[in-house]
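Milestone M4 deliverable, item 7.
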Amino acid sequence: MTSESVAIEEKMSAPDFWNDRQRAEKLVSRLKSLKNQIDPCTTLKDDLVSLRELIVLNDDEEDDSILVEIISELGKIGKKIDEFELQVLLSGENDRGDALMNIHPGAGGTESQDWAEMLLRLYTRYLDKNGYQHKLLDLQPGDEAGIKNATIEVKGEMAYGRLKSEGGIHRLVRISPFDANHRRHTSFASVFIYPEVAEDIEVEINPEEIRIDTYRASGAGGQHVNKTDSAIRITHFPTGIVVQCQNERSQHRNRESAMKVLRSRIYLKLLEEEDERRAKAAGEKKDISWGNQIRSYVFHPYTMVKDHRTSVQTGNIQAVMDGEIDQFIEGFLRWKERKN
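Output delivered:
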């Protein structure tokens, strides 16, 4: 890892480094990623050396103030070790790259569509709080409330690695605001997370195996809505994957976005099929990725959010709905490592 960073720095010092801007930007991004892995390890090593010196000094002088400092440093080092552990857990093939997120309501009409919009708000707040850039590629509003579909592009360090924990079925239990009798309702929504595929990764899409349909964008407000056939729907026949994008004003931009989503979905499908083949060869039985109910959000008769994979839970449901989901993400990463 260190030798790779040194090699990149040597290339960056060359006078013609920026002649190929695209290649240069990739190398700069890679160097930043390597530094983010190397620097915490170096800092932790230095902290442990300093702590050892404090312990030796305390043995010699038996000073209470030094003991207090040792205890304080132990707490700080413990936190750094936890952070470093997460860095190690986020070392998968696509973990450090960008991501695409799709949110889709389950059966239940307005109830589940409203729940899907609540999840969109939750994740938008999480992304904002953690400094991720995000762009809405597709948003289809519900008939009465909520949304029928949302696709978000997320850019930033570890975007896919951290968000992949959210893929699955999310369950909501609450007193329905749409029920005049104020009865308790259960709603479901699915979240899908895909790694955004880098341009240098080959994903074969035969033009003869896709159908591209255009239609008028739907939405609340905006002069361009329902005026032109700018929205795009692409169907990939071999896999049955259907993607659509309508949030750009031009058909060309929507087509680019839709193809990006399609490439990512096909790429993830190929990775999953490869994992299944390996598991079968090893005699393992894999869970159906998107068929699992991963988390419940209960607003009534009590408040609780519980992850059914890791058993991580909290009673502070409002904080979770405001984007505080780090404990669930980190719990998932540790659970997945133990499971493997």
